[in-house]
Amino acid sequence: MRLLFLACLNPKTGNCTTAERIRNHIVAAGHTCVLCDTRELSSSDVVSLMTQEPLFEGALAIHLFKGGRLLLDFGVPFGVVFGGTDVNEDVKDEHKRAMMEEVMRKARFAVAFTDTLKEQAEAHLVCESKKIYVQPQGIETRVASRFSWNDFLQSTGVCIEQVEDLHVFLLVCGLRRVKDPLYLLEAFAEWHIQNPLVVLIIIGPKIDPVFTAEVEESVKRSVGVFLAAELCQEELHAAMQKSFALVNSSLSEGMSAAILEAMDLGLPVLAKDIPGNTSIVQHEVTGLLFSTPQEFVSMSKKLLDDHMLQDRLVRNGKNYIASCHNPMKERAAYQQLVETLH
């Protein structure tokens, strides 16, 4: 079968990584899967693609609004994968919600990464529950063998002589408002003044130019908080492995790949207490959940001092990934779902 796959392909983002992984699952089953960037397509572009030889026999999209709406006039069976912001944020917009409900009406199936995301869709969209399948993301990490931690820190602007005593809290996210990377800025800067050996590094692609400029300006005026240039996936995983903890401070999440990758790499996780995070982070079992910047600092101090807590979070996190986020189970699930498009 020849499939069109639509997704927002901002380089070095979780969405892009997820799309490429799902595409690989489909290709492994013997299908042809053409991955296209929704940022560069209109509905008319998709209709034009539909008429090209060889013809597409089915389609798939990540994100009900950004991708799914482009398939409404496609004329072939399609499935959708919830992106997170569609179900968490876009449902608040009446026009977008109506469009997404139409997508759900026409789709053969929809995939939610978590039970929470499925429940959100059922609560806010008129849709058939039986169409929604829950399939957690499959996680695989690869660490760059030639990665210099010292060079990375220097290029980021971290100039501390006792690098071995440094505790880096790494916040991995694309620079856009929903990820709220400045949420901890003031509290962390105050903590850094008390303890210069703790630093927060924000790293990820510059998705929203206006917001990126705001982040850059805020970080410049701060102490102990740094903004790093984006890295390729293997180098990012190497930087994560060298860090003390992974931080997530998003306003909303579908399922944070960065959190899951951190667990797989043996990195403690501190995450904002929001539905997308609580579905994968169990407080004081697989990570720590915070509700305020002050609570984040308090928990971080505890984590620094409590080695038994560190070991428990790392061990439980790795076990959780192995049992719940197996990429081979994910592969089998998508291959079965794609068969329903025949």
Strand order of the largest sheet: 2-1-3-4-5-6
The biggest beta sheet, please? Answer: 6 strands, parallel
Q: Which residues form runs of ≥5 with pLDDT under 50?
A: none
Looking at how many chains there are and whether they match, the oligomeric state comes to single chain
SSE string: EHEHEEHHEHEHEHEHEHEHEHEHHH
Query: Which bin fits the share of residues in helices?
Result: 40-55%
Q: How would you explain this protein's 3D organization?
A:
- The chain is of the alpha/beta class and 342 residues long.
- It is built from 14 helices and 12 strands.
- It has helices at 14-28, 43-50, 85-88, 94-106, 115-124, 149-156, 185-194, 209-220, 233-242, 257-264, 275-278, 293-305, 307-324, 327-339; strands spanning 2-7, 32-37, 58-62, 78-81, 109-112, 132-134, 167-172, 198-203, 225-228, 245-248, 269-272, 288-290.
- The strands form 2 sheets. It has a 6-stranded parallel beta sheet, sandwiched between helices. Strands 9-8-7-10-11-12 form a 6-stranded parallel beta sheet, with helices on both faces.
- Helix 1 crosses helix 14.
- It starts with a strand and ends with a helix.
- The relative contact order is 0.13.
- The mean pLDDT is 94.
